[in-house]
Amino acid sequence: MAIKQIGKSLKARENQLSNTFYQLQVLNGKEATESKFPSFTEKVKAIGLFPLKPSGIEIFQLNIGKLCNQTCAHCHVDAGPDRKEENMGKKELEQCLEIIAAVPSIHTVDITGGAPEMNPHFRWFVQECRKLNKKVIDRCNLTIIVANPKFNDLPQFLAEHKVEVVSSLPAISKLRTDSQRGDGVFEDSIKALQMLNEVGYGKDDSGLILNLVHNPQGAYLPGGQAELEAEFKRQLKRKFNIVFNNLFAITNLPISRFLEYLLASGNYESYMEKLLEAYNPSTVKSLMCRNTISVSWDGYLYDCDFNQMLDLKVATKSSNHISNFDIEQLNKRDIILNQHCYGCTAGAGSSCGGEIS
Amino acid sequence: MSNSTNYFNPEDLKKFGNITAFQEAMGKKFFDWYGEVFKEGALTAREKSLIALAVAHTVQCPYCIDAYSTDCLAKGADEEQMMEAVHVAAAIKGGATLVYGVQMMNHVKDQSM
Ligand code: SF4
Ligand code: SF4
């Protein structure tokens, strides 16, 4: 079934929030709202961890394009079918491969987007990374597998190359999944999960890992990950005979289209209050920006995918692009923090791998 | 002085914790106990949240309905489960009324020839 898009990207709508400077002004109480919240940087200073430093680069995360077959209401990438221009080219991917091969501390290549599989070089790049013996993660939105016949064999391809699949399924509810991701997404996602199961994903002893991502479908924080995982497992098995490995509960960060939703629904202040109330200093040491480097489609380097979407490049000006990648300098950099970081430190913390504490 | 012109103000939910200001020892004991009650135990935290949602409807507390609608979602309950919980609450309330029908029937019998 074809997905009915919720709308267009902020960029296509020429919404003010497509300007990252404007987003940062909002987060700092200088635009759209007068609410100012205590500075995140001060919180990190108070526990003696400022400036926040990397622990070493282990995960090389690439956002290879903003093109996507969905336009989810909460998307922090502002991705969608109308984002045709921002896609990583082969030259940049080759440069990334050189870095991945040269830096032994990088054990994982984490490929995201948009729908990364829509990048024409995706399969070639996965194969090259696997030749280097690196673990490869595909952040797959599921529906891409059934969106077009040319993607129908993705489960086989991913299985053949032992790629770990991390897929979004916000809820076991058609109503709430579709209201966040577009009409028809739930049904297509279930079909795609069954196809992944068919080739062995999520099954004991297959060695093929299928992890799901749950994120709230509104202005609230996720509940406990272990309990959510148990409930997802029970319901998916009972209703659709689907199995998977782990569930990652991820907090929505107040940026991009989720920030748009918060402002438009009048939930911005109360959401920030919830994040602040749930601030958990013990998560700071394990924030994902400490062991990850995030690369944009045009090769710039960021501390994480969220900083990338706010255009907050790494602080090391002489090593801020794949063309001048210098591991020594990057390992010593100060991580750029701002008010959106509260989304990573609420409750049990949140990262691309779910809870962190 | 409170400027509220309503008995129920959604903002008051956030001030629940302030009840300790007038009686600290009891308030503190209540919140400790409350926290313990809602922790995962023999029942999961999600099951407890659904029970709380059902009870909130029977005691018709708008604050509790507000808090536990969100909490149920956060704990992974779906809207079908939440509505079923409300039906359970309603069925008990309805049944509790109807079961008195037996008393009514007894009285009718006692006073009839
Ligand atoms: S599938 Fe992912 S990248 Fe695509 S619009 Fe939805 S959240 Fe954004
Ligand atoms: S958004 Fe999260 S991961 Fe990124 S820099 Fe802030 S705390 Fe680190």
Question: Explain this structure to me?
Answer:
The complex is a heterodimer of chains A (357) and B (113). Chain A has helices at residues 20-27, 40-46, 90-102, 122-131, 144-147, 154-160, 174-181, 185-198, 225-240, 256-264, 268-277, 305-309, 327-331; strands at 59-63, 108-112, 135-140, 164-168, 210-214, 247-249, 292-295, 301-302. The radius of gyration of chain A is 19 Å and the shape is globular. Chain A is 32% helix and 10% strand. The relative contact order of chain A is 0.17. Chain A has 13 helices and 8 strands. The model of chain A has no long low-confidence stretch (mean pLDDT 96). The termini of chain A are far apart. In chain A, strands 6-5-4-3-2-1-7-8 form an 8-stranded mixed sheet. Chain A has a single domain, classed as Alpha-Beta Barrel (TIM Barrel), CATH 3.20.20. Chains A and B meet through helix 9 of A and helix 4 of B. The structure holds iron/sulfur cluster (2 copies). The site of one iron/sulfur cluster has 13 residues of chain A, from loops.
Structural class of chain B: mainly alpha
Structure class of chain A: alpha/beta
- Report the sheet-strand fraction of chain B: under 5%
Q: What composes the largest sheet of chain B?
A: none
What integer value in Å does the Rg of chain A equal?
Answer: 19 Å
Q: What oligomeric state do these chains adopt?
A: heterodimer
Largest sheet of chain A: 8 strands, mixed
- Give the name of the CATH architecture of chain A: Alpha-Beta Barrel
SSE string of chain B: HHHHH
Q: Radius of gyration of chain B from the CA trace?
A: 19 Å
Total helix count of chain B?
Answer: 5
Shape of chain A: globular
Number of strands of chain B: 0
**CA-to-CA gap between the ends of chain A?**
39 Å
Termini separation of chain B comes to 63 Å
Helix content of chain A: 25-40%
pLDDT < 50 runs, ≥5 residues of chain B: none
- CATH topology category name of chain A: TIM Barrel
Task: Domain count of chain B, please report it.
Answer: 1
